[in-house]
Amino acid sequence: MTIKVTWHGHATFSLDIDGTNVVVDPFFAGNNPVATRSVDDVAADYILQTHGHGDHIADTIPLAQRTGAKVIANFEISNWLNSNGVDNTHAQHLGGGYNHPFGHVKMTTAFHGSGLPDGSYGGMPAGFLLTIGEKRIYIAGDTALFSDMALITRGGVDLAILPVGDNFTMGPDDALYAVKLIKPKVVIPCHYNTWPPIEVDIDRWAQAVAAESDTKPMVLEVEGSYEL
Ligand code: NI
Ligand code: MN
Hints:
7-stranded mixed sheet; alpha/beta; 29% strand; binds manganese (II) ion; single chain; Metallo-beta-lactamase, Chain A; 6 helices; binds nickel (II) ion
């Protein structure tokens, strides 16, 4: 089994798990200033929604409606999607895990907001801990640094996807500390260089990760992929 992780820019990823496509936080070209791919050109069987902010949910409804993908989101966002033309949802909440056909998905704590684009209450923001076969992936979501990242990822993870852009989430220094807490085999940074307030010298950050931890930094180009 292989998992191909593709970055679409900002915090949007696709996981191709032997042909099952899981899209994280749909935010594509036309909405996402750094994305090159159109939401009309994305395959999805499942959508993982970390929280309700527009830079994560702007393209969830069109993607879910076109593909019929099941959206995994917190209870509040799941209900909001049901009220906005998306029937195929699976609600979870913080700390709760569920065996989906492609793997086990645990919804994890994140420290952030989650208001929906129309002002509706979006519940608590989240991250995801995925167990897919023997592989474990931690997607932190938009969050500040918190020491329970070590608790959440106990037992080790093969890949951590962490925000590093500062201003709205952890910045480079805190994200480096998060790497030292989580000790993933590989880290992919995200949520940077989308707009001026979150500009980061990502090569410098990757050099610091390589120098100060045993984790391999994997800086992806937009539409670039990493296979694990
Ligand atoms: Ni956000
Ligand atoms: Mn965000």
